[in-house]
Amino acid sequence: MIEAVGLTKRYGAKTAVHNLSFQVRPGTVTGFLGPNGSGKSTTMRMILGLDTPTSGHVTIGGHPFRKLPNAPRQVGALLDAKAVHGGRSARQHLLSLAQLSGIPASRVDEVLGLVGLQDVAKKRSKGFSLGMGQRLGIAAAMLGDPQVLLFDEPVNGLDPDGILWVRNLMKQLASEGRTVFVSSHLMSEMALTAEHLIVIGRGQLLADMNVKDFIAANSTGFARVRTPDTEPAQGEKLTSVLSEAGGQVAPEPDGALRVTGLALPRISDLAHEAGVRLWELSPHQASLEEAYMQLTQGAVDYRSAVPPQAVPGVVPGGMPGGVPGGVPGGLPPQGYAGDPYAGAYGPQAGAPGPYAGQPGPYGAQPQGAPAPGPYGAPPAPPQQQPQAQPQQHAAPADPTQQHSEDAR
Ligand SMILES: Nc1ncnc2c1ncn2[C@@H]1O[C@H](COP(=O)(O)OP(=O)(O)OP(=O)(O)O)[C@@H](O)[C@H]1O
C-alpha cells in the first residue's frame, strides 16, 4: 500500500502539492487524475524518493521509498519513457538496470517478451517510436516483479492495440494483488481501467472514491426520450407536458430530448396520457469525462483563449452542468449498470445525498442541491458505500498565495 500523509511540496514560491493525504490499496487499479500542472508527477516523484517533501510524508508498505530494502524488487515505475540512454539497445538498457538491482539476465528477456519488444531488443532505443519507448519503460518497471507499480501516462503514444494491452496488463497486475497507481488524461481509458480514483487539482485532493461513485457524485443522470421523427408536433407536445409536470427538457443533437427531474415511469405515463408515442425512453449516466470536467473545471490552469467553434453533434455551451469553455457535451453518454435513476428522477430528486452539506467543488452547488446547469436536476446519490470512505473536497484556493515566502 502507498500512503501519503499531509504531503506538501513547494518549489520556491510555487506550491506544487499541498497537504495531500491518500492511500493506494493493493488489488485494484487506482487512477490518479488532475489537470495539467496539478501535481501528479510531483506526487509520484515524492512517492519514489526522487523529490523530498517540504512537509508531510509518503510511505510504501510502511517505509519511505529510500528506506525500502531492495526497493527495485518492491516498487517499479514508469515516469518518463524518454529517460533512456538512446545509444543503448533495449536489451542493454534493461540489462544495466537489472545488474544494478541484482536481477538475473533471464528476467530481461522475460519482460522484453512480455511487452512485445523481443524482435527489436537489439535495436538502439533512440530509433524507437513513442509507443515503443513506452513499452520499454513498462518493461523496466516490471523488471523486479514488484508488488507496487506506478505508471505516469502509460498509454501515451500507444496505438489502440497497445492501449488495450496496457489496460489488460494493469488489471492483471491488480488482480494478482499488486498495488497499481496510474495517472492518465484519457478519461475514457481510465473509466475502463481503474476501479478507484484519486483526483487532485492545484496540488490538493478533490476526490478519493470509486469510479462509479465519482460519476454519480459529479454528474447528473438523465432520461433520453425520442418521439417519432416524422411527427415533430409529438415532440413539442411532450416537451410542454413534461415541463408542466416539473421536468427539465432540452433537445439532444439528434432530435431526442434530454429530460431530468422526472422518473422514467412518470415520463412514460405522461406521454401515454398525452397520446404521444415514444420511440425511445432510456436512462443515461454521464461519462467519467463529463464528471471529471465538472469536478475540475475550477482547477484548470491552462485553457485556450479561443472560444470553441460550434461543431455538429456537440451541444452548444458545453456539457450538462454547464462547463465554461464549451466541453464537448455531445459525447454519447455511457450506459450505466444498475438503476440509479429512481433517485435522480423520482420524488427524491433533490433530497440530500451523502455529499449534501459539504461545500461543492469550486464553490459550485453542494451535492444534493439543484445543480445550476442547463439540465438542472441534482446528481444521483451513490447507490453503495464504497470500501474506502469516499472523500470529495471543496475548491482549493491557490496554495501558492498562502506560502509564497517559502523556499524549497
Ligand atoms: N522542479 C520544479 N521546479 C519548479 N516548479 C515545478 C517543478 N516541478 C514541477 N513544478 C511545478 O509544479 C506544478 C505541478 O507540476 P507537475 O508536473 O507535478 O503536474 P502534473 O499534474 O504532473 O502535470 P501534467 O499533467 O501536465 O504532467 C506545476 O506548476 C509545475 O510547473
Structure description:
The chain is α/β, with parallel strands linked by helices and 408 residues long. It has 13 helices and 14 strands. The strands form 3 sheets. It has a 7-stranded mixed sheet. Strands 11-12-10-13 form a 4-stranded antiparallel sheet. It is elongated and about 75 Å long. The relative contact order is 0.14. The chain binds adenosine-5'-triphosphate (ATP). Residues 11, 14, 16, 34, 36-42 line the site of adenosine-5'-triphosphate (ATP). The site of adenosine-5'-triphosphate has 11 residues, from β2 and α1.
Structural class: alpha/beta
Ligands, ions, cofactors: adenosine-5'-triphosphate
Give the count of helical stretches.
13
Q: Which band does the percent of strand residues land in?
A: 15-25%
Low-confidence stretches: 310-387, 400-408
What is the makeup of the main sheet? 7 strands, mixed
Question: What's the alpha carbon Rg, rounded to whole Å?
Answer: 24 Å
Question: What do the pLDDT scores average to?
Answer: 77
Query: What is the string of SSEs from the N terminus onward?
Result: EEEHEHEHHHEHEHEEHEHEEHEHHEH
Q: Spatial order of the strands in the main sheet? A: 5-6-7-3-8-9-14
Gross geometry: elongated
> How far from one another are the termini?
28 Å
Overall strand count: 14
User: Share of helix among residues?
Assistant: 25-40%
Protein name: ABC transporter ATP-binding protein
Organism: Streptomyces ochraceiscleroticus
Keywords: ATP-binding, Nucleotide-binding, Transport
InterPro entries: AAA+_ATPase (IPR003593), ABC_transporter-like_ATP-bd (IPR003439), P-loop_NTPase (IPR027417)
